[in-house]
Amino acid sequence: MNPIYEQMETSVFARMSALAADHKAVNLGQGFPDFGWPDAILDKAADALRHGSNQYAPSRGTPELRDAIAGHYGRWFGQELNSDHVCVTSGATEALGACILAAISPGDEVIIFTPAYDSYAPMIRRAGGVVREIALRPPEWRIDAVALQAAIGPRTRAILFNNPHNPTGRLFDAAELQAVADAATAYDLIVISDEVWEHILLDGQTFTPLASLPGMAERTLKVGSAGKIFSLTGWKVGWIVADPALADVAARAHQFLTFATAPNLQSAVAFGLAEGDRWIAPMQQRFARARDRMVQGLQAAGYAVLPAASSYFLCVDLPASEIAVDDETFAAVAVERAGVAVVPVSPFAEQDPVRTIVRLCFGKRDDTIDAGVAAMARAKEMFA
């Protein structure tokens, strides 16, 4: 069997979710929300299933959805796009895979910032590429421009950049974005920009697409996600947005991964994006309230919580919480003995992992948050 997969451990998300089920624990580990979707989008999907096409959609996506994606980014970020810039995929992880397979040749080096979403490194290796990690450090999780420049060598082909950042909830600032853009333009690099959390912004934050920076539109493959925007992660509808020359190659990789995405879901997402300007602000406010509820509960229980500006994740600093064990040990005790599943952050890096942080998902109903916080309080007492 392919050693990349034969030697690969089970995803930390699947592992912790399985433990949550085994121990009947509150699952604050895997990142899916249990609220937030507009019912009108569900109604549109149901209607399209019954009355629309149920055959193969065009591989690059329905014209309706591709136009809606281009129009959405034009309204929100002033980008001049059309359907030729867009390829619809079966989820953002598939979009990432298509971008990596399209951009990376055997022997190419790809820079990633760790902790990093755990699909990045395996997919880079599947394309024959070599992973080069740059470690971000808590509590700031800042990109160091000097470290980025030092990581670039003669075989560097691409940067895989995630903003807003999972698992830390960090929204990178203008100087950090510019550092990535400067490195890409100076060394003629492709940037695969994972921007799936672009609308899950808290506290009035604003998002800047990397492709909107000077010199970046022609070298950036952006990955977006309807599942994140509309809290419908199970639909697995994502997309790639890029200069048509790049989008064409990514679409060729996509056609032999999933070929096409369910047409009724594409119709519903197109409707959601066209009408979404009135749904996004209430969604952001609801996630902010959920975050604040969890933060207040955790702090009352004695935990040190790092700032979360985006996504529906927040991180707990174990040493600052006076817990003297590593993240894997804490996560095991919390799920087995206290009744709550969290995600240790160390599996998000291979070379220099942070072992002092656990991640929690706050995209939950109030009763789930309260039950999870109560279980975290029990876990805290076990390490007192």
CATH second-level architecture of the largest domain: 3-Layer(aba) Sandwich
The rounded Rg comes to 20 Å
Cα separation of the termini: 46 Å
CATH homologous superfamily caption of the largest domain? Type I PLP-dependent aspartate aminotransferase-like (Major domain)
User: Helix and strand succession?
Assistant: HHEHHEHEHEHEHEEHEHHHEEHEEEH
The main sheet comes to: 7 strands, mixed
Residue share in helix: 40-55%
Determine the CATH topology of the largest domain.
Aspartate Aminotransferase, domain 2
Strand-residue proportion: 5-15%
| Poorly predicted parts | none
Shape: globular
Average residue pLDDT? 96
Strand order of the largest sheet: 2-8-7-6-5-3-4
The tally of structural domains comes to 2
CATH class of the largest domain: Alpha Beta
Summarize the structure.
The protein has 14 helices and 13 strands. The protein has 384 residues and is α/β, with parallel strands linked by helices.
Structure notes:
With 384 residues, the protein is of the alpha/beta class. It has two domains: 3-37 and 279-382, Aspartate Aminotransferase, domain 1 (Alpha-Beta Complex); 39-276, Type I PLP-dependent aspartate aminotransferase-like (Major domain) (Aspartate Aminotransferase, domain 2, 3-Layer(aba) Sandwich), CATH 3.40.640.10. 43% of the residues lie in helices and 15% in strands. Strands 2-8-7-6-5-3-4 form a seven-stranded mixed beta sheet, with helices on both faces. A four-stranded antiparallel beta sheet has the order 9-10-13-12. Helix 8 links the parallel strand 5 and strand 6. Helix 4 runs parallel beside helix 11, helix 5 packs parallel to helix 6 and helix 13 (327-338) packs across helix 14. The longest helix is centred in the last third of the chain and has 24 residues, at 277-300. It starts with a helix and ends with a helix.
